[in-house]
């Protein structure tokens, strides 16, 4: 194992870590020595991931949370401080994106999308900040998206708006928290083959999408986890306020 990617002694919180990209992130850090807490609305699924990794000699626990609840988010981080005594890497990966035509977006859909994708990021980071200040360092990572900051997708106006907000958060929080030794960065996935991706189209549609990606395939959850590992590692200690696009080159063509 490269020392740059040895996270022994580090504690990591991953929201939305029960499946897909989140699960790959959890596994990537846990298998490299980190102690990981999965925070997910799907508790049984998160516990199954934790049990699988514990069987492989990893330190992983799971807790249920509705990230739209700001009070619950604060209590989650406070519980980590009480039980673990520190938090080194905060990864907000959870996302909410029901495919909905623009004219059919309702107030509850918009409010929950913004609450889970964007507002929770504020409350998680605020709650973790005292620990980061005490430690003199901290790392905040976010799963953003190319949808919103760079491209558009029919039926995801609410999601696109939330992710554009996430990228604004990354830049501004990075500026404000740098004096505390806190780095804030994100990853912008393109089309990634996950259970959630299946909700956006059938196999034929996804196959057509893959054929238009310059690298010739949909991305994997592990592709995103690899970028997260890099941004959290000692190789990236001078990087903050940035996002890495992981999309197989799909945003490169002009048309």
TrEMBL record:
Pfam families: adh_short_C2. PROSITE patterns: ADH_SHORT. SMART domains: PKS_KR (SM00822). The keyword Oxidoreductase applies. Gene3D superfamilies: NAD(P)-binding Rossmann-like Domain. Residues 10-190 form the Ketoreductase domain. SUPFAM superfamilies: NAD(P)-binding Rossmann-fold domains. Keywords: Oxidoreductase. InterPro entries: KR_dom (IPR057326), NAD(P)-bd_dom_sf (IPR036291), Sc_DH/Rdtase_CS (IPR020904), SDR_fam (IPR002347). Belongs to the short-chain dehydrogenases/reductases (SDR) family. NCBIfam families: PRK07231.1, PRK12826.1-4. This is 3-oxoacyl-[acyl-carrier protein] reductase. It comes from Pseudomonas mohnii.
